Amino acid sequence: MAGDQLESTRLALRDAVAQAERAAELARLLDAAQARIADAERASAEANALRERLEQAEKGLAAAQAAEEKLRRDLAEQRYQAEVARWKLSSVQVARWSRLGDAIKTGKSNPVRLARGLRGAAKPAKRPAAPKRQPIPVTKKTDRQVPGASFQATTSTRIIGGASVKLKPFRVPTGPNTRPHLTAAVVAEPHAEALLRYEWRQTAGFTPGDFARALSAEIPHLLLVESVTEGPWADEVREAGPALRALLAWCAERGIRTVFWHTHGEVGRFAAAASLFEHVVSALPGTVKEWGATLAAREPEPGRRPPSLGLLPFAVQPRVHNPLPLAGDRFDRVLTLAELLPAHLAYPDVLTSYRWPRAVYCPPGTEPWRMAELAACGTPITPVNPAEPVAATPPQAGPPAPPDALALSADDRRAHVALRQSYAAGTMSQKVDDLLGAVGLPSARATLNISVILIDRGDLDHALAQVAPQKGVVQLVVLSDAPDAAERARAAMPDRVDVAARRTESGLTLGGMLNRALDLCEGDLVAVMDGRDLYGEHYLTDLARPFLFTTADIVGKAAYFAHMRDVAATVLRQPSAEYSYLPEVSGATLLARRTVLRGIGFADVSEGWDEVLMRQCRADGIKVFSADRYGYVCVRDRDRWLLGAARLVDYGPPEPHALV
């Protein structure tokens, strides 16, 4: 019994000691927390005091500036009054009566001097000009730096054949970017910087002497260094200098991924610097094998692993390589690449030149990325060198081709196809997705998935045949009276497309049906397609492209082809309405952001619902953009309204003209 009591006492003492230790630890933690709270309160008080002092200093500065401004005005007024006094004195001195008095006073004892003085005083004298108030000098306030302002085009003059041509520079956009969650520090030349600046929050312009201060303001997730040959980092990259090593060490301490991007120059010239990075990528596919051999032959420095090797080619950047036109018409000449891009042009001015001429001749050996950028800007690339003489052709009988036929030439259609192909080869956003995946960073960005609302006008098979070939469609909502509309739609559409069918209801307007269909849509974009009309297989791909380079919430077509069956005539409506912000577009070509369209809704009407929608957009300040003329044909038996602001294209089928 005594032993049990002793054991229980021992256990109780042990628990008491443990509780005392926990209590002591809690007391210590409490004291530490109270100390931190006291420090925080003290810091808060100091911050408040500093804030008050800052406010007082700002008030004092404002008062000092006001006093300085008053003193400046007073000084200017005193200077003006002194000038007025001197002018009055000079005016009195040159007055005739004053000069006569002086002559009489000085010559009263000498008749000869008196006569000479009177003759001089009788001559007219020029009076001094009255002083004018000078503007008060104003101290210039430092303007807030606008992001991207230093990257704007500056040259507005081009010299062609010895003649100077004036043009309005292309305004390089300043934002937004594709991945706002990601920050990258970039050392690059203007061309590469233009390709990357819209892909993330980009920090550039830091130097070997201030990179730690510049990058500490917003710690980047990625460091990307191009094989630069100019600028403050050129020597460091060429020689793997101490500042570059310090930058990479600074990144390593913070877990920042590092990438070296070879864009030009010999591989061996940059091998020493590239071996210090975690990843090496090349813009030149032909150099990847050489890079592999070069990196394999180099022994990595102690504590470093050999860098991985990948590919990051130049690609089209939609924000700057797009068919948005310059103000005014194109320069009506075919230029050579040397005429178009003289060596002195900075890259922002190159973006202006891309949009300027009627066509460009690119000689054999031109870089593919250069031709892709030209094509993405909507400029035709011709195989005919304008500098070479062309063999004379005998004149053709008959009248010359009308201007309309010239405007609808095959060159325009080829230029549109080339633009489409340049984007289809991959944009810079898609290339950066691959880069981020290779280095282990998230590449999430907004998508452009499309839900299509299809209005069946009585020929469901024809309507479904217009939607089935479209790319980017994730959902189809069919409005049809056909009893088996859902089954036929599922059979016609690819498996990846979700299909829903809704039958029309008596007493429900077309606008009401569209609203119900809109509630079912899940895509980022919503398209409305009319079953009566013709849509090319690239229709939605072309129509969604402006969302990559404009700030519009609704895209459609104000310039489009129309076909009247009764006279077998094909016309082109509003041909000058391509690639521009306009008050309205055709409802059968509507492609809108789903969130915006739900906020507006469709009017409860059966006729003219698109006109009401466009009026609502104008009232709410929603931007509407008109895309290209191709890929869509409005088909009617007869419609006089379609003939307004239209020009005749051909008597015959519309497909050869519209569906390219």
From TrEMBL:
Supply the alphabetized keyword list.
Answer: Coiled coil
Q: Where is this region: Disordered?
A: 119-151, 385-404
Coiled coil (residue ranges):
23-81
Asked whether the UniProt record includes Coiled coil among its keywords, one would answer yes
Say yes or no: keyword Coiled coil present. Answer: yes
Recorded hits in InterPro entries, A to Z, give: Nucleotide-diphossugar_trans
Superkingdom of origin: Bacteria
According to UniProt, the name of this protein is Glycosyltransferase
